[in-house]
Amino acid sequence: MTENNEMEYIKPKITEDYQVLAALASTGAGFEALGGSSLMLTEPVENSVDSIIEANKKGLKIKGKIRILIDNKTEQVIIIDNGVGFTNPRHICERPFDSLKKYDPDLTGKFARGLQGFRSYCKRLIFITRRLEVPKEEVFGGKTGRTLKLEFTADRIEVGASVVPDNEFLQWTQGEFNHGAVAFYQEWKAGEFKKIRKDKLIRRIERHFGELIRKGQIEILVWEGEGVTPDQMPPAKDFYECQPRDYSGLTKIDIPNIEYVENGVKKGEIAFELYLTNRAKRDRESLPFLMYKDRPVGDAPIAEIGEFAETDVWNSSYLTGFIRADFCDINELRLALKPGPSRDFLYQQMENIEPLLRDIIKKHHRGLIDLKRSQEINMLVNKLQSFLKQKHIFDFKIAKEPGDLTLSEETDRVKVTSSTGTDIAYASSAQSGEPAIGLKPIKVQPQDNVGQGEEPDILQRQQESGGAGKGHAGNLTGGPDGCGQIVDTGGMGYKKNENGLNKSVPTQEKTLEGESSSATDRKVRKRKPRGFNISVQDDEFSDELSSFDPVNSTVIINSGHERYRKRDHPEDPANKELLSYISELYIWEICKLSGKSNPDMNVMDVFLKTKYEFFEAGGS
User: Fold this and answer.
1) pLDDT tens digit string along 186-198?
2) Which of 6, 170, 244, 605 has a 20 to 30 Å separation from 206 between CA atoms?
3) Is residue 262 within 8 Å of 309, Cβ to Cβ?
């Protein structure tokens, strides 16, 4: 701006305590509008993470540990970390909006405002910090020392500071570490503590710090209960360990990274980590978000950014993941990216890929419809064959038998694919589906005198295939099986040892049909199909409703016929009307097949009677 010599420039003056207090409290107002207490409590965890990163840069090479305790009895939240501690507490207190972290590109918190957010929720915030090093000439109340207590009060601008005995900090760490900070959020304003929800806080933390957890840089444990003191800390088993978001069972969308160049110099790149979900998810936590230096930008998904709020792609229930853009600048509250050329470039590239994503999502949605219909038809086949066998219409075995699969059963060995599909010759891992037997790699060393039991790290020897050492006939394999224990006189077994032999343990899995194009080298064993299956094929030029293929022992339903199409609803691929129609045609084909071997059988009468009994019995 050009200076105007005729104009007087007036600087704002914040001279009164109430003005300073209002400025300090403004951060809390932002949290109130965007996320409440769970978002506010994410801030001290953010500070803990930055402190841990700083500790590693100083050469400690530690794994970050953060403990969050919600004490319903005393109505306080305690957060413990093993970072470097408060390295310059006087600066934090005297210059609350001037963060020393702003000069470190590896640290996310740069504006020193998150610390002040407590003022909207509780009246008192106390820190006890034990530092790796004490700043030169640092004195509080005439004393100096490694352990310091800082007390913030919501209605005062002054911060109480005093040197305290080291045990004030160490008593809360249970001997795990001897440096870091403990924060106590106390004296919550009316009704605010009761609004804290452990599950909501966990979801936010897992979303916000998931990538750092995935990389093994930090662990975050959360506990909620009644009454906690240094002498009565909850045992480790009572804590919940936060987990990164698991994308392993989802289908990744292959989009190449896009470089961002400014004045001929590469400043970074856009990395797309977007995935297709196996079912529609309506919650905002699953929608895609922007990622800045391993942490989400703000609390909102892309769908809630103004420029993309009306876009169907970013609001799709089948799309999840994140877009990484470390070359952008983040705003003072870390709630959004700063406007500028870098953000404009990012947003333009996101708009450019929308048509591609829209097409992929539509195809994926159609595939899920076909998959759901296929799964429903498989269950229908089981039901139909069981019913027809009971009625002695036709003597065939059920296509898929219920129950767990054992190693002694006759099975097919099929390749595992990374995505679900409709190809029965392949299998994809799933939370539910058909049983299968897989192999889990493990390292062990031989161990004498092992018998049946539940001793940790002790495994029995699998004497025979299918038998797991329990008496079934088969070929000697010598691999480890289920849990065992060391006894006085037992057989040869194994003990887990990371430096031992490479072996494999049979494991029970659940699988769906796979997609051949995404086949991997891993294999599992599945039951061989039995009985007569149903295949849906489109032949709009045929008047036949259905037919029977004797080569593949399959009833073929003509999905191109007008009668089928009238019952085919895209949003309800396995609706009752369609399944009833398929059931009727299946019964008709089996009755016809049965009539060929029984000339005295009146096929039409048997069909009508059987169909009536099946539907009366609630078969469809």
Assistant:
1) 998 888 898 888 8
2) 170
3) no
